[in-house]
Amino acid sequence: MFANGFLSPWGVAGMIMPFQMAGMAIIGVAGGFYRRYKSGESPGRLFVEAAILGAFLTLTYDIITNSGVAVLALTSGIPIIPAFITTFITGMAFAIIHIISNTILFGFTFIPLSNVLQKFGGR
Amino acid sequence: MSVKKRTFVFVALALLVWSVVATGFAGYYYSIYSDLLVKTRKPIIYVNIGINYGNGTIEWFNGTEARAGDTLLDIIILVATTVNYTAGPSGAFVNSINGVSYSDSYYWMWWMWTTWGWFEGQVASDKYMVGDGETLYWYYEDTSIFPLPKPS
């Protein structure tokens, strides 16, 4: 995420980079945690669980990064409540697209990606 | 973890996401609807537009007459002699106003006057519908400075 903060086609992340890194760290921890529970489950169940996890983690990530933007708004003198409300409302359209697309992506890519990584990692 | 408990956890997670997203979605549309309702109440609106060229020259066009539904880009095209912009998927990128083009870290940014002072524009100028009595400001400024310098 640190590298992405500089190389993203959307431009340099700037001051919200620590929030992005925190959001991604949570996703990484959740992935590592979920790995323990995935063995022996049916593909259908894994598909649904991965999709739900994708939606939940994306929502968590968006809340963290939008909070980062709101904190930045505070530095320009806007009071805390309007800063958070404005930021979350402005970011809502993107968040909805982000959550829906990641729900689909996590659901469909989890099993094949997991199989490929297992082959490479040997675990 | 038992199958029953596991199912419960994932159903709860799904419901949590659904409730937060649905609430956010409703809030978002309520906000857009309320904004649109206020901004289209009168067919003709009057706005104040400032242009700061970053070299000490500031022009004000107070009480500029516009149509309800006009965007900030429409207004700057109305008051400026020349405006050059590039339309993109995220909105219009203003390249130059009255011959002053972006260069290095200097870009045309826009600001809005609010009860808390100047507030940096959150969307492209062609995505922002101007309301009656609003004061908006185009500022040619150094975007490498953090926080971004506000209009003074």
Describe the structure in your own words:
The complex is a heterodimer of chains A (123) and B (152). Chain A is built from four helices and no strands. Chain A has 123 residues and is mainly alpha-helical. Chain A has one domain (18-121). In chain A, helix 2 runs antiparallel to helix 3 (43-75) and helix 3 (43-75) runs antiparallel to helix 4 (80-121). Chain A starts with a helix and ends with a helix. Chain B has 152 residues and is an alpha+beta fold. Chain B folds into two domains: 1-39; 44-142, Ferric Hydroxamate Uptake Protein, Chain A, domain 1 (Beta Complex). In chain B, 30% of the residues lie in helices and 36% in strands. Chain B has helices at residues 3-39, 72-79, and strands at 44-52, 58-67, 83-88, 91-97, 100-101, 106-114, 117-120, 135-142. Chain B has a five-stranded mixed sheet, covered by helices on one side. Chain B starts with a helix and ends in a 10-residue tail after the last strand. At the A-B interface, helix 3 and helix 4 of A face helix 1 and strand 7 of B.
Summarize the structure.
With 123 residues, chain A is an all-alpha fold.
Number of domains of chain B: 2
Poorly predicted regions of chain B: none
Gap between N and C termini of chain B: 60 Å
- Residue share in β-strands of chain B: 35-45%
Q: What is the CATH fold-level name of the largest domain in chain B?
A: Ferric Hydroxamate Uptake Protein, Chain A, domain 1
Question: What share of residues of chain B is helical?
Answer: 25-40%
**Total count of helical runs of at least 4 residues of chain B:** 2
Mean pLDDT of chain A: 87
What is the spatial order of strands in the main beta sheet of chain B?
A: 2-1-8-6-7
Note the overall shape of chain B.
elongated
**Number of structural domains of chain A:** 1
